[in-house]
Write a structure and sequence with these properties.
It contains 22 helices and 31 strands. With 751 residues, it is an alpha/beta fold. It has five domains: 102 residues, PriA, 3(prime) DNA-binding domain (GIY-YIG endonuclease); 71 residues, Arc Repressor Mutant, subunit A (Orthogonal Bundle), CATH 1.10.10; 213 residues, Rossmann fold, CATH 3.40.50.300; 183 residues, Rossmann fold, CATH 3.40.50.300; 88 residues, Alpha-Beta Plaits. The longest helix is centred in the first third of the chain and has 19 residues. Bound molecules: adenosine-5'-diphosphate and zinc ion.
């Protein structure tokens, strides 16, 4: 009998604490249960993560009591948390917190209780007398008798009475009012028309069979322990579904899940937050009804709490959600699907800095379930895993029903600029093409990956640009509310009337954002209905769905937006997509700039021509011969990857090395730089021959929210060596109190 519990406490300590289990709690303490414990001079709650016989410590305090009747997580999820803490160099309590939503963990989290009204026998008699009742009371009682049990709120709303009317009926003995648990219903998951499985194309069928085979094989042998180091080693339970946009990947997911459910196993579908529109949810709800649970960031804490418990109790066994849904407590999990697996939104940018795609692969390994990674443009790492045979590859090279891929055209924006003609936002080509579509009553999407109006304001006299005082970026001008906004820290300032440096009066706006595109489009096409979608227009909960709804029903002709409109959306009447400025993502100082640009163009292009009329894509660029732009024009994913892989191999970048980014942040530039330099030297000595350690350099985003930022970048074949070196170093020296150090494993963002 284990008599000691290892407990993770809800504070940052990075370790587990031993507590004695008193005999009276022997039967209620188990792994995953929340317990109350004495901690220092106070009391806290913690989670039991292990039960053992002995402890290294001589004197142990005892657990005071258990906080809940049931454990919050089971063994496999706990193993996943341990792996995550190890792999991402995060403290164990952060990993445990990641697998449990705050809405479930927090104090006072519980089911909502509502009051329900029930008619009593006397009210149901054939000839009730209803003596001494007011008109309102009679009306309400009539209704209650007719509908039977219903919530007090509903009765009041329907009869237009206050609750005191119904309560007086209770006093008179006609009805009873009882408290009962009621689930907060997550909108859009219910009441949809059921859909039937489609007859698959032969490619779809092959893909489905490969996926099912992986699932069957995987369920036969669960791997008891995860090799923390090599995530993709021996990952034959993973199928990479590479299918062009509109090739019917979603239908394959749906049928793969249906097979899982037949085998009494559940499934998780991860989608990028952006794609979590009712449109996506509806497709799953139409197939699986109220077996689905939805988890996304727009849920209230209460809704999230209820959805989580529906999953935990087995009432919902198909979970569709964003990043953190990878931890959904589905019992007997059979499959995890990661749609648009290349998306950077799967990477969490606070500790633990996990990538949900990679966590899914590991969870699949631990729980014996299959993992499907789907994308039209898989990330280079996944593609390489398919090439080397670590992942199984399934391909859907054609659109459904032989619908053509859109026709791609590149417009060289340097022409015109060279002629001295002021080059506007739109080329003549794009303007004419938009005009054509409007005439034919077809729809247009215009894409620019930058919100706001002008990306900076520049003094025409002295060239001074307005910068954020706390961050090393220029301020973006937002015309709708006449303000300058820092896109890094969110600080708002007034638009200056004069240059802050030389006092010249004229203010020149330069660089283009979506607001400007909207303004110009309205000028050129005054009769068209135009709408814009970016994070400025979607601050309200429903505005995103509202705009998309109006676009779908044809009330909007031209939709302008940021990456928000790039993915996953299906609008058959869109026949033209314009990429206003393709170079935007190319000019970022990041080795993934090419990959991002290729993915963005290909994804945006995927919005065109999804109906019966074929589509066209116009890409405006100042670097028409760039490899990423050219490959995107041919929609040549493999060609792009071949070249990119060669270049990554030569420079030892992922997938040929693991990438660690250490970012030091502090109020004083010299001290921060010095500490980063110190770490760089120590690590390069410690990791000699095992890793490439960069010198300490100023981060591309050199200052953020008043803190200076310096980075050390490490590339290594073996991630374990780096983690060990890093751990040894931080064990002996702590970063100072005023300077923090963040370690990002498999970093995607090196700003
Ligand atoms: P993807 O997820 O690859 O972008 P979708 O699954 O959205 O593609 O499919 C695009 C369109 O084709 C959808 O309207 C879908 O209903 C339809 N579709 C998919 N598979 C089939 C099929 N086998 N037969 C007919 N239509 C299909
Ligand atoms: Zn700022």
């Amino acid at each position: 009998m284990s008599c000691i519990a290892k407990v993770v406490v809800d504070i940052s300590a990075g370790k587990e604490f031993d507590y004695r289990i008193p005999p009276e709690l022997e039967h209620s303490v188990s792994i995953g249960i929340r317990v109350n414990i004495p901690f220092g001079a106070s009391f806290r709650t913690g989670y039991v993560v292990n039960l053992v016989d002995r402890s290294d410590r001589a004197e142990l305090k005892s657990i005071i009591g258990v906080a809940d009747a049931k454990p919050f997580f089971k063994e496999p999820l706990l193993k996943l948390a341990r792996w995550m803490a190890e792999y991402y160099c995060a403290p164990i309590e952060q990993a445990v917190r990641a697998i449990l939503p705050g809405a479930v963990r927090k104090k006072g989290a519980k089911f909502r209780e509502r009051l329900f009204v029930q008619p009593l026998a006397i009210a149901l008699e054939n000839t009730p007398v209803f003596e001494g009742l007011t008109d309102k009371q009679k009306l309400s009682l009539d209704h209650i008798v007719k509908v039977g049990q219903s919530s007090l709120e509903d009765v009041c709303a329907f009869c237009n009475v206050t609750s005191s009317v119904v309560k007086s009926l209770e006093k008179k003995g006609y009805v009873s009012i009882v408290k009962s648990q009621s689930l907060r219903e997550v909108a859009s998951a219910r009441n949809v028309i059921r859909s039937e499985p489609l007859v698959l194309s032969s490619e779809q069928k092959t893909a489905l069979d490969l996926i099912s085979a992986a699932a069957d094989k995987q369920s036969a042998h669960k791997s008891p322990d995860a090799a923390a180091d090599n995530l993709s080693a021996n990952s034959r339970h993973v199928v990479l579904l590479h299918g062009v946009t509109g090739s019917g990947k979603t239908e394959v997911y749906l049928q793969a899940i249906a097979r899982m459910l037949e085998a009494k196993r559940g499934a998780i579908v991860l989608v990028p937050e952006i794609a979590l529109t009712p449109q996506t949810v509806e497709r799953f709800a139409a197939r699986f009804g109220d077996r689905i649970a939805v988890l996304h960031s727009h849920l209230s804490d209460g809704e999230r709490h209820d959805e989580w418990h529906r999953i935990c109790d087995g009432r919902a066994d198909v979970v569709i959600g964003a990043r953190s849904a990878v931890f959904a407590p589905v019992a007997n999990l059979g499959m995890i699907i990661v749609d648009e697996e290349h998306e950077h939104t799967y990477k969490q940018d606070e500790a633990p800095r996990y990538n949900a795609r990679d966590v899914a692969v590991m969870r699949g390994k631990l729980e014996g379930c299959a993992v499907v990674l789907g994308s039209a443009t898989p990330c280079i790492e996944s593609w390489n895993n398919a090439l080397t045979g670590k992942f199984i590859l399934a391909e859907l090279p054609k659109r459904v029903d032989d619908r053509k891929m859109p026709h791609m055209r590149i417009v060289d924006m340097r022409i015109g600029a060279k002629d001295g003609k002021k080059s506007g936002i739109f080329s003549q080509d794009l303007i004419e093409s938009i005009g054509d579509r409007l005439e034919r009553k077809e729809q247009v999407m215009l894409f620019l990956n930058r919100r706001g109006h002008s990306t900076s304001i520049v003094c025409p006299a002295c060239g001074f640009t307005e910068k954020c005082a706390d961050c090393s970026v220029t301020l973006t001008y937002h015309r709708t509310d006449e303000k300058l906004l820092c896109h890094v820290c969110g600080k708002v300032t007034k638009v200056p009337e004069k240059c802050n440096k030389c006092s010249a009066e004229a203010v020149k706006y330069s660089g283009v954002g979506t607001q400007k595109v909207e303004e110009v489009t309205k000028k050129i096409f005054p009769k068209a209905n135009i709408a814009r979608l970016d994070s400025d227009t979607t601050t309200k909960k429903d505005s995103y769905e509202d705009v998309l709804g109006r676009f779908r029903t044809g009330k909007i002709d031209i939709l302008i937006g940021t990456q928000m409109i790039a993915k996953g959306l299906h609008f058959p009447n869109v026949t033209l997509v314009g990429v206003v400025y393709a170079d935007m993502s190319l000019n970022i100082p990041d080795f993934r700039a090419s990959e991002r640009t290729f993915q963005l163009i290909a994804q945006v292009a995927g919005r065109a021509g999804r109906g019966d009329v074929s589509g066209e894509v116009i890409v405006q660029t100042f670097t028409p011969f760039h490899q990423a732009v050219q490959a995107a024009r041919r929609l040549d994913y493999k060609g792009f990857c071949d070249q990119e892989l060669e270049y990554r191999k030569e420079l030892l970048y992922p997938p040929f090395a693991h990438l660690f980014v250490l970012t030091f942040k502090g109020r004083f530039q010299d001290r921060t730089a010095a500490l980063a330099g110190f770490y760089s030297k120590r690590l390069s000595t410690a990791l000699e021959g095992k890793a490439l350690v960069s010198e300490a350099v100023e981060a591309p985003l050199a200052k953020m929210k008043g803190q200076y930022r310096h980075q050390v970048i490490i590339r290594a074949k073996s991630a374990k060596a780096v983690r060990d070196g890093f751990r040894t170093l931080t064990a002996s020296i702590k970063p100072s109190r005023e300077i923090s150090c963040v370690i990002d494993v498999d970093a995607l963002n090196i700003m």
